[in-house]
Amino acid sequence: MSHEPPGDDALLRAVARGDSQALADLYDRHSGWLHARLTRRCSDPETVREVLQDTFVTAWRSADGHGGGAVGGWLWVIAVRRLADARRAAARAGSRDLLAARAPGTAPSAEEDVLAGLEYGDVGAALDRISPELRAVLRATVVDGLTTRETAHLLGIPEGTVKTRASRARRELRAALVALGPAGGAAC
Amino acid sequence: MLNRRPTPAPRRAERTVRHVPDDTAAAYADGTLADSAAWSVDTHLDSCTACAIRISALVRTGGAGPLLAGVREAVLEAAAAGPRAGRTLPWRAALQSARVLRPAWVGSVLLTLAVAVALSRLGGAPEGRPWLLALAPVLPPVGVALAYGRYGDPAHELAASTPSGGLRLLLTRTGLVLAVCVPLLSAAGGVLAGAGAAVAWLLPGLVLTGATLALGSWTGCHRAAVAVTAAWLLAVALCGLPAVAVPLLLSPAAQPAWAAAAAACACLLILRRTAFDHLERP
């Protein structure tokens, strides 16, 4: 099912040695899904293009700084931070129109539960019930692993708003889970 | 830094859901997958190369194909043009970063020299020397503030978000500033006052630079430079202007105290090193 010729780690080591063919291979492996994932978070194709390009140029320059761990996750962290930076720069330049998704607020403590529950559909259904802007906050902090500050930049809202919306998202998620609960009120 | 992301131990999702099903992968690739299902794919892709390759291939054959090909070309071009940071020759990197030295600052260094020399010409050597030595220690901190940070460096955001940004970059630029300051000011001091006095400002200059960096870890370099410069000028004024202050503050007897202060600044800077990994607050 999974055949991985040289393996991502070996590829990245080659990139770190300055092998541009390895960079091309790395790009072919990961650029597609990175593009799809970025596009879900940013509706402006030009920004996505720039972020994608920045991501691989950064990977080329700092491949030897990769401290182990999954290469896909490493690339995504670079990409999503670049995206947050790009949003922040755009917000500063006054192009607020780029900030399509406006949602803050996340509960770090809910993180593992959400990730663990995604496969079962219960949390999935609960997520579908909460408002899109709260969902965007959860995605930034839970799935993308951004800090409050980075989330604020990504979504174009103040940090304080991120925090309040985070706790709201947590409350709503909990309420939605309770409403969906198979046993009604399984607690107690 | 870059791998700070929480990539926790095996989650339930990874144990039970082996790989992304074909129809889900196709929906993810064309952007039509529902949010909650897409999040599962997101987290799976962080660690699964096989699915990453499959989905990337699907995206490439879709509408984003031409864009991906264009970016690929641009990335490879950038890689061919710019050597990797680790392989950049040191003198080359220094030359490249020399561009951050503001003409205004280099001008102010030269102006200080010119004024000091002019004063000594007009009123005899004793006039120019104290002024030169009183102003010399604040020139490096001012240069550092102009070469790094939100207000000085146009590429500041880029610098702060790259792995080699932060303290390493700040120290590189500080070194560059000192490389310009030290020879010029020492040479002028030597001309005006003889070899011994020419280097009297060096340690205080280092201390003020170190204090700017250390204080800058809390306040940002520009504010720190303003505060440190003001404190120094105030001290000079309180001691009774350069003619009195310079012999006092820069005397050989004071040098051990300056050396101790320099060491203290270095220790503080080491303790605060991680503070430079983030963007300065506005």
Automatic annotation (TrEMBL), chain A:
GO terms for molecular function: DNA binding; sigma factor activity. The keyword Lipid biosynthesis does not apply. The keyword Transcription regulation applies. Signal peptide: none annotated. Gene3D superfamilies: 1.10.1740.10, Winged helix-like DNA-binding domain superfamily/Winged helix DNA-binding domain (1.10.10.10). Pfam families: Sigma70_r2, Sigma70_r4_2. Keywords: Sigma factor, Transcription, Transcription regulation. One of its GO terms (biological process) is DNA-templated transcription initiation. Residues 26-92 form the RNA polymerase sigma-70 region domain. Residues 123-173 form the RNA polymerase sigma factor 70 region 4 type domain. InterPro entries: RNA_pol_sigma-70-like (IPR039425), RNA_pol_sigma-70_dom (IPR014284), RNA_pol_sigma70_r2 (IPR007627), RNA_pol_sigma70_r4_t2 (IPR013249), RNA_pol_sigma_r2 (IPR013325), RNA_pol_sigma_r3/r4-like (IPR013324), WH-like_DNA-bd_sf (IPR036388). NCBIfam families: sigma70-ECF. Belongs to the sigma-70 factor family. ECF subfamily. PANTHER family: RNA POLYMERASE ECF-TYPE SIGMA FACTO, RNA POLYMERASE SIGMA-70 FACTOR ECF SUBFAMILY. This is RNA polymerase sigma-70 factor, ECF subfamily. It comes from Actinacidiphila glaucinigra.
TrEMBL record, chain B:
InterPro entries: Anti_sigma_zinc_sf, Znf_put. Residues 1-21 are annotated as: Disordered. The keyword Cell wall biogenesis/degradation does not apply. The chain crosses the membrane at residues 100-119, 131-149, 170-192, 198-218, 225-250, 256-275. Coiled coil: none annotated. Residues 11-21 have a biased composition (Basic and acidic residues). One of its GO terms (molecular function) is zinc ion binding. Keywords: Membrane, Metal-binding, Transcription, Transcription regulation, Transmembrane, Transmembrane helix, Zinc, Zinc-finger. It holds the Pfam family zf-HC2. It comes from Actinacidiphila glaucinigra. The keyword Transcription regulation applies. This is Putative zinc-finger. Residues 27-52 form the Putative zinc-finger domain. It comes from the Bacteria.
